[in-house]
């Protein structure tokens, strides 16, 4: 079956590609393995110069690749440009910091003397070829946040990107080569999901990283576990956005952030806030302002600077969103705004910014991730109820809490079951901060020191007396 690039704003097919056959995949796996033997011997200064060259290319081509991302998955052009800029920033961050993050560690000789050692060294060595299975929602950033640390650590990469963003995938496969990385250091495999397991099981592939659905994560983790290969998984999220009464004076800022947190990337972000849990003392004021702000958003052409929310990326994605909303409404939830397709946009896969209230645990949306511009609104009486409801989800990616009370901050930081707790601001990923989740949101961490060490052989080097 051809791999297609389809414009979600119109439903029009832009370009189709034939998947690579087994011989083409074999050629790229072999090339990645050969490139690893060369790339691992380069020093950090050489890798950093190459990574900065890739960042420079990306900066110079920002508008071009932003148009490609917008055309393939519907994010607004402004957000696509910002994504490209963020990728270049991360490349430079790892170029600047990789050597120190992977520097040899020297335990105090006195601490290891009883092992019979005169001294010992802990070293971080690259693992080899790493397979990256990546999603469409941040088609540049999700890849770069793996590729930059992996290449700086001395690994090589194979990218199996989402099948609806083939143009972006091919761009990425070409970017690092044009920057000067040796042939085979980073390559795109234009294949369907059915080809992933064979690549992962290939003995020349050392590890895998996946960002995507729970189903894809389970499949990759199972195959990797059977082959005894390490993985990092970043899966779904249904992040809470908690507003306590101590934030009453900052309610306008909380509302503004809440809207951005819900509809960023057209609502299609694993770390987007999705469940809005508000203390009863400020619930009515928050709800009124939040709904009004969601209603004011402009839905339309993602290339138009005035557009706030573009289309959902795929027709099936919109259908899944509609099913969740219809299930909630049929079971007694109320749509305070939105709740359907915008009548003025009959073409493409648009969905109205929607706020649902009266959500209960009998509704699918209480447990499942809403991947689109749909928010659920909850009223809670106190801190205990806020913590309990925030944790009442199978996911645990990140969380947002608005409170100025130090005791409340300590409680949320201690008890929220999530990979991140962001106070009085919006969850975001940053090169210097570890990123990942718990529960069904996955395991392992990307970015920061943890991210670059994820695909290293942490080696103990012991010297006897």
Automatic annotation (TrEMBL):
Keyword Transferase appears in the UniProt entry: no
Gene3D superfamilies: Aldehyde Dehydrogenase, Chain A, domain 1, Aldehyde Dehydrogenase, Chain A, domain 2
GO molecular function: aldehyde dehydrogenase [NAD(P)+] activity; succinate-semialdehyde dehydrogenase (NAD+) activity
Keyword set, alphabetical order: NADP, Oxidoreductase
SUPFAM superfamilies in the record: ALDH-like (SSF53720)
Aldehyde dehydrogenase domain sequence ranges: 3-461
Keyword Oxidoreductase set for record: yes
Protein name, as recorded: Putative succinic semialdehyde dehydrogenase
Annotated organism of origin: Actinacidiphila reveromycinica
Highest classification ranks of the organism: Bacteria, Bacillati, Actinomycetota, Actinomycetes, Kitasatosporales
């Amino acid at each position: 079956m051809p791999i297609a690039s389809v414009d979600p704003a119109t439903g029009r097919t832009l370009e189709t590609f034939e998947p690579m056959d087994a011989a083409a995949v074999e050629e790229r796996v072999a090339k990645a393995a050969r490139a690893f033997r060369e790339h691992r011997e380069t020093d950090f200064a050489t890798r950093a110069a190459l990574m900065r060259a890739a960042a420079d290319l990306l900066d110079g081509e920002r508008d071009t690749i932003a148009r490609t991302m917008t055309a393939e998955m519907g994010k607004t052009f402004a957000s696509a440009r910002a994504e490209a800029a963020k990728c270049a920033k991360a490349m430079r961050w790892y170029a600047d910091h990789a050597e120190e993050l992977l520097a040899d560690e020297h335990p105090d000789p006195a601490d290891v003397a009883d092992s019979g050692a005169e001294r010992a060294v802990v070293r971080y060595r690259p693992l080899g070829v790493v397979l990256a299975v990546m999603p469409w929602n941040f088609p540049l950033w999700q890849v770069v946040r793996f590729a930059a640390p992996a290449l700086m650590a001395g690994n090589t990469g194979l990218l199996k990107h989402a099948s609806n963003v083939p143009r972006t995938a091919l761009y990425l496969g070409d970017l690092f080569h044009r920057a000067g990385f040796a042939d085979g250091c980073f390559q795109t495999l234009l294949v369907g999901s059915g080809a992933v397991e064979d690549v992962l099981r290939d003995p020349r592939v050392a590890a895998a990283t996946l960002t995507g659905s729970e189903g894809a994560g389970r499949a990759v983790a199972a195959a990797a576990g059977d082959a005894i290969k390490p993985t990092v998984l970043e899966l779904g999220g249904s992040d809470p956005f908690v507003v306590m009464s101590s934030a009453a004076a900052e309610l306008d800022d909380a509302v503004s952030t809440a809207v951005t947190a819900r509809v960023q990337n057209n609502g299609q972000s694993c770390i987007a806030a999705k469940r809005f849990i508000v203390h009863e003392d400020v619930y009515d004021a928050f709800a009124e302002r939040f709904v009004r702000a969601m209603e004011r958003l402009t839905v339309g052409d993602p290339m138009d600077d005035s557009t706030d929310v573009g289309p959902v990326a795929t027709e099936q994605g919109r259908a899944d969103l509609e099913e969740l909303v219809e299930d909630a409404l049929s079971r007694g939830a109320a749509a305070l705004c939105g709740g359907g397709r915008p009548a003025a946009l009959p073409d493409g896969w648009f969905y109205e910014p929607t706020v649902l209230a009266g959500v209960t645990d009998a509704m699918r949306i209480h447990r499942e991730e809403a991947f689109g511009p749909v928010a659920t609104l909850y009223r809670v009486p106190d801190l205990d109820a806020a913590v309990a409801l925030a944790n009442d989800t199978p996911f645990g990616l990140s969380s947002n809490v608005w409170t100025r009370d130090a005791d409340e901050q300590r409680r949320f930081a201690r008890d929220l079951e999530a990979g991140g707790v962001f106070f009085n601001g919006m969850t975001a990923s940053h090169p210097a901060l570890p990123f990942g989740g718990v529960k069904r949101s996955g395991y392992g961490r990307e970015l920061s020191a943890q991210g670059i060490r994820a695909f290293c052989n942490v080696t103990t080097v012991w010297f006897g007396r």
